[in-house]
TrEMBL record:
Transmembrane segments: 36-54, 66-88
Record's protein name: DUF1294 domain-containing protein
Organism classification: Bacteria, Bacillati, Bacillota, Bacilli, Bacillales
Keyword line: Membrane, Transmembrane, Transmembrane helix
Organism: Calidifontibacillus erzurumensis
Pfam families listed in its UniProt record: DUF1294
InterPro entries: Cold_shock_CspA, DUF1294
GO molecular function: nucleic acid binding
Keyword presence, Phosphoprotein: no
Keyword Transmembrane belongs to the record: yes
Length: 89
């Protein structure tokens, strides 16, 4: 269980930082992080970090897919965490 928690923590930190990196790159008209990568990270468990990054960096907040989709992904993540917790214990 500790390994899973550590993995999810690292994944959420990566998601949070990627939002910041993408925001800076968008301001400088540089190469951007593909949106598909954000969704994959979210599905893998980084939804909270990505959503926090959206709010802190004010990035992707006008994209309805992100403002509605990330909270939905977070809900799915939490349901999976609860299920895994019940199965392991």
């Amino acid at each position: 269980m500790k390994i899973l928690f550590g993995f999810l923590l690292i994944l959420n930190i990566i998601g949070f930082l990627m939002m910041g990196i993408d925001k800076k790159r968008s301001q400088k008209s540089q190469w951007r992080v593909p949106e598909k990568r954000f969704w994959i990270l979210g599905i893998l468990g980084a939804g909270i970090g990505l959503y926090a990054g959206m709010k802190v960096y004010r990035h992707k907040t006008k994209h309805r897919a992100f403002t509605v989709g990330m909270p939905f992904i977070i809900l799915l993540n939490l349901l999976v965490y609860v299920f895994i917790g019940l199965v392991i214990n």
